[in-house]
Amino acid sequence: MDSAAAEQAAADLLTALGLDLTDENLAETPRRMARALIEMTSGSDFELTTFPNDEEYDELVLVRDIPLRSVCEHHMLPFVGVAHVGYLPGDRILGLSKFARMVDLHARRPQTQERLTKRIADHLQDEMQPRGVGVVIEAEHTCMSLRGARAAGARTTTSALFGRLRDDPRSRAEFLALTRRTP
User: Chain-centre distance of CA 45, in angstroms?
Assistant: First the structure.
């Protein structure tokens, strides 16, 4: 990341939009804007902490309502919501905090919600080789709620299912039922 270039680009954009950056209220905005975008689009990798599945646990493990913040690659505006991530363990089980870390890692780049959903599912599938993987993301896109259609409150839901959570109707139904919001 080139923070100095990002700050200059932010200043150029704000100036092109007709804003007076000599105004005391706006003088530091290019720096803050660049830092905010850098923070929202970068993150560090991590290692998944796994443990032997000594008890041969073979039922669904699901972490619901993981907070999610990402940026739409088409408008560079945020989308915010929750991710529900689950799997049917194989030989190893995953440390629970890693579900949230995985969501955060993949959310920190401009992208579509569809791609984000698949990347999280692919990561879990590739690293764990479980019997099934499921990811459901529900998010509100500010590119749709604050501009364009101005459909505030509209949420987009995407899913990615692999293995038994895709192919076995009962496992699929259980996973999707558990990810549905309850009042």
Answer: 14
